[in-house]
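Q: Here's a chain of 481 amino acids. Please give me its 3D structure as tokens.
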Amino acid sequence: HIEARSFYTYYLRTLTGITRGSYKLNITAGASNDTDRVSHPLRADRSKLYMADLESALHYSLRVEAARPSSLSGAQLAALKCYVGTLVKFFPGRPCVQTYLQSLDAWLRNWTEPELPRAVLKEAMKNNRDASHPSVLPTNLTWVGCQGSERHFRGYPCGLWTIFHLLTVQAAQKGPDKELPLEVLSTMRCYVKHFFGCQECAEHFEAMAAKSMDRVASREEAVLWLWSHHNEVNARLAGGDTEDPKFPKLQWPPPDLCPQCHKEERGVHAWEQPAVLTFLKAHFSPANIYMDHAEPEPVPAAREGMGARLGTERLPEERGRGEEEEKEPEGEARAPGRPGSPEPRRPSIVRLNPKFREGAEDIVDLDSFSEQHFKSQALQAAAGRRRRISKRDTVALGRDAAAGRERRRGPGVLLREEEEDVGEGLRRSPWLRVLGLGFSRLDISLCVALYFLSSMCLLGMYTFFRLRTRARKGRPGFPMA
């Protein structure tokens, strides 16, 4: 009657003001301290699964536990290959994790040597974020639903149990019920036997598997076998030194999660196994896996490169636009640089200090300098007029100005070309030539409307006086004496 007693304990713990007194944890002195407590516990819903727990357990099982021996060979190497292959078939991971498992599985299949050194295995288990399809299994341990009140409670054992429950349910959902019913259970048995860090726990699980696992005849029976033996482990470990006082080991699922899973037969608690199977299939489904606190998925290298190129293309354009607005008078008067020079240089009349000279100085004629100076003033005035143009006209003028700037980059082009380009752009449309004088489209529209109304008024007056004149001519004259 261990199950019945555990449920009585569960109901008592749900009552307010009731504290546990039936047993005490065997905690050695100094085993628990303030530094071992979780400083910022994450909020979790026990009715949900969390991808952070699953990925953390995968990372620890592969990169820590499986990579603990100095080399793998024989049954250990076969157990690792079987474990990774089962994960590839049934683990509902994110795309980057699935790619990681597939690449690791292919690498292990191609390994033909009798021994696999630990250094080689660890190198093969590294992430590849630079590929077109990133192959990444997060390396941080983030426990959400499996987080304990202290760091040495729960964590990896909880996550590993969750993974194997998930795999048994996914195997039952995907494949024929009678085909390979022990596929996942055999994988779990081999992994726990060869890699699980708790040797005593591995021996207990091997004893349970040897006792009844061979009698499992379907994949749904495999789901129920793992669930019932997990509850058996919880009943055995309840009250032990591995139990978290904040998360006592109970028979699962409790009545508040699945009330239809429980029944009473002759005054004794019993399980409604069809309801339990339905609950397990719903609870350990991909739809119940949440991404809270999971590491963000990496961006593929091709997409990241495209974003970087777009960013670098935007930045010079925006930077150039800002410099043009701030330094337009200086830029208009500056002569274009020679090909290969880093940036255009203003000619100087006075000879500079030698330490400030980087190359040969340009000797400038004073007449040409004054001519360019007056041209720059004229261009500044034209630029001031262009700023007053409305936004829609600025777009049209911007293309001509941009073309002028592109032509100005070529060697041997004088400032006179910009004047010709601006004049040519204004000559292309009479409307732009009018608007260049400071009038907007609204002003032109009002002028046209006023002109039309004035014309109609004059036409009406002309018609009125014309009719009046005809009427006067039609009247009979006065009789002659």
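Q: Can you summarize the key feature?
A: The first strand starts at residue 49 and ends at 50.
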